[in-house]
# Entry
Amino acid sequence: MPNTTGPLVAALLYDGLCTFEFGIVSEIFGLPRPEMGPDWYRFASCAIEDGPLRAHGGVRILADHGAELLDQADLIVIPGWKGAEAPVPPTLVARLRRAHARGARLASICSGAFVLAATGLLDGAAVTTHWRHAQALQRRFPALRVDSTSLYRETDRIFTSAGSAAGIDLLIEIVRQDYGPAAANSVARRIVMPAHRTGGQAQFLERPVSLRAEADIAPVLDRVRQALHQSWPIARLADEAAMSRRSFERRVVAATGMPAGEWLATERVEAAKTLLQETSRPMEDIAEAVGFGSVFALRHHFRSRVKLSPSEYRRNFARRKPSPA
# Structure
């Protein structure tokens, strides 16, 4: 493990390991990041069965640690699972339940949701998984409320995420919760990913994203992000892009998967989240700074996207010593 003192993240290893899902856990939590300081994560891989273990792609793995290390982990990540009908060992279920009872967080990527579901800790809760597994998950665990559309969900320190790449979004969100937006953005830049996609965002778009459309309007979108406090009616945005309003709106949908007004509101909410986490500025100042203009509008848009009020979000996710600036 790296010479750091932060939370211990343990990734499960099993025969038939989903290589990509494990790789992103290792990349985000296991890669040395000296720029993050000595309290960055510690990372370990824990085999839940005797090896060598097979992984997708013709790879064999010998683990450094066994399942007993799970008893010390602060965050346990299940990077996929053997299959929708594959049984979950009772000994693993017991370890996960004990870990959660002592305060550890549990997270799954893609089909790893079947493992968390087997613990019974998510009965009655909303969970997500890859959309192709959603029906099987609901059928096998009818006490769950399976959400087949969201990128990731969180309930009582238990996280579930959709297919493969959505796991990256979830893990970056965990970094965001633990170390703040600046650290999450740094990790996202390192792996060349968007800084943040909210868990409620759809798993896939109805049509492919147009790279040319994004390239055409990217400078305008960047200018908006740098000046969210200003008024940005659609007509102004279209003028900035030197397009007709109709063409501009089509290109925004093609590039972002949502209408221009929805994209703008989402960007403002994301900026508000950063200010709520990083500063102690009053709600009126934050509403003005991100362009909502009033606390009422901030609360309305924030709750509709985050499912929490701004005050609740600040209580849950603010850094320990927010700055007034």
Summary: The mean pLDDT is 88. The domain at 217-317 is CATH 1.10.10.60 (Arc Repressor Mutant, subunit A). The longest helix spans residues 260-278. The CA atoms of residues 52 and 62 lie 5 Å apart.
